[in-house]
Design a protein that fits this description.
Layout (H helix, E strand, L loop, with lengths): L4 E5 L6 E7 L7 E2 L4 H5 L19 E4 L4 E4 L2 E2 H7 L2 H10 L5 H13 L5 H8 L7 H15 L9 H27 L12 H10 L10 H14 L6 H10 L5 H12 L7 H12 L5 H9 L20 H17 L4 H15 L1 H5 L6 H11 L7 H21 L28
Antiparallel strand pairs: 1-2, 2-3, 4-5, 5-6
Helix pairs in contact: 3-18, 4-7, 5-7, 6-7, 6-11, 7-8, 7-18, 8-9, 9-14, 9-17, 9-18, 10-11, 10-18, 11-18, 12-17, 14-17
Length: 430
């Protein structure tokens, strides 16, 4: 709370109300409107919650105008260059970077929980062979509340921490199993001698018939993507996790709800939409034609993976992943027409005045989709890849909320339906 306030006057009643101004460590000042309805009888209207702060949080700070993203105060650029995903996970969960002893213990805990109950594989086997992996992921994660009933007291800090570690550990296992179900391959169990990203690649692509060697460039690119996707403040899926969590629901149900929200093409499905767009364009020779369509306000075509609702400047994550994208393509020696097409689109977006003036730069979804394709990860798995990284953000936000007093989420509405009217019998209806 600051000493500042804004005074609101209702001209009809003559009543006035002082709205206190709240200030965080950084970011825009925020009006406290909790007394607006009781005192003046008004609610606020904010479609999409674009100017509404729903909570206080210590975890992630974003300045969209300046292109800043920080986890617990650390710039994403420094973490991406020097850290690992599990070290970043520890930071998001506990608030500080770990000592070497703390990190080793945390890595052991995550590694210990990578296995899933064998009945989970049976459950996955019950899905239709071509079920979308996100359908499997949301169903399986929700079902874990039935496997771990003994540790579901959301008021017990130890139970909350254990659930958080389980989900961070098991999300790659379940995601890989969903892919293998689609492929008709037998389950691949986690190899605990590998690190987090290497283990996931091994579970995805190893087959009993031959040895599988993890490409270190691919593993590092994947680890980097997990870091960049780990948290992003109160986005749609994180807000969903918090809203469900406000009811006292168990953490598996909350994260399953987050997965469902992430599935949408406007959110986690954006990188999948990028590849669909590239497939629609089809060839480098048609890039100019589609760029012209994108500039035409009357044409329904839109370039996916460009610009961002939050960032009014270059997405800081895109700056980081752009180099990794080019490194992966160079190391793997990929010759793919769609990748050539993507690089041509990138070149135009970074040089064309139309895109530069509107700050429609390639975002993290644009580059992540290209990397996933280069690694041989199918388009349907792009959103589960996002979910693996974002799980740590979801559970960190859920833990923060569960540890502090909070009210059940209950947005209001502007009612636009009929006013009161009397029932008319069916025989009398025209």
């Amino acid at each position: 709370m600051t000493d500042r306030k804004l005074t609101l006057t209702d001209p009809d009643s003559g009543k006035t109300l002082d709205l206190p101004i709240l200030a965080g460590t950084e970011g825009d000042p925020t009006m406290d409107i909790t007394r607006l309805n009781p005192e003046l009888g008004y609610f606020t209207y904010d479609p999409g919650y674009g100017t509404t702060a729903s909570c206080k949080s210590d975890i992630t700070f974003i300045d969209g105008t300046e292109g800043i993203l920080r986890y617990r105060g650390y710039p994403i650029e420094q973490l991406a260059e020097r850290s690992s995903f599990l070290e970043v996970s520890y930071l998001l969960l506990y608030g500080d970077l770990p000592s070497s002893t703390e990190l080793a213990a945390f890595e052991r805990d995550i590694t210990y929980h990578t296995m899933v109950h064998e009945q989970v594989n049976t459950f996955i086997g019950g899905f239709h062979y071509d079920a979308h992996p996100m359908a499997i992921l949301s169903g399986v994660i929700a079902s874990m509340a039935g496997f771990y009933q003994a540790n579901l007291d959301v008021n017990d800090p130890a139970h909350r921490e254990l659930a958080a570690k389980r989900m961070i550990a098991k999300m790659p296992t379940v995601s890989a199993a969903a892919y293998r179900h689609y492929m008709g391959w037998p389950s691949a169990y986690p190899r605990n001698s590998l690190n987090y990203a290497e283990r996931f690649l091994h579970m995805m692509f190893s087959v009993p018939a031959e040895a599988y060697e993890v490409n270190p460039v691919a593993a590092r690119a994947l680890d980097l993507l997990f870091i960049l996707h780990a948290d992003h403040e109160q986005n749609a899926s994180t807000s969903t996790v918090r809203l469900v969590g406000s009811t006292g629901a168990n953490p598996y149900a909350c994260v399953a709800a987050g997965i469902a929200a992430l599935w949408g093409p406007a959110h986690g499905g954006a990188n999948e939409a990028v590849l669909n767009m590239l497939n629609e364009i089809g060839d480098v020779s048609r890039v100019g034609e589609y760029v012209k369509k994108a500039k035409d306000k009357n044409d329904p075509f839109r370039l996916m993976g460009f610009g961002h609702r939050v960032y009014k400047n270059f997405d800081p994550r895109a700056r980081i992943i752009r180099k990794a994208c080019h490194d992966v393509l160079a190391d793997l020696g990929q010759t793919d027409p769609l990748l050539d097409l993507a690089m041509e689109l990138e070149k135009i977006a970074l040089e064309d005045d139309y895109f530069v003036e509107r700050k429609l730069y390639p975002n993290v979804d644009f580059y992540s989709g290209i990397i996933y394709k280069a690694l041989g990860i199918p388009t349907s798995m792009f959103t589960p890849m996002f979910a693996i990284g974002r799980t740590v953000g979801w559970v960190a936000q859920w833990l923060e909320q569960a540890a502090t007093p909070h009210r059940i989420g209950r947005p209001r509405q502007i009612y636009t339906g009929h006013s009161a009217r009397d029932y008319v019998g069916i025989d009398e209806r025209g």
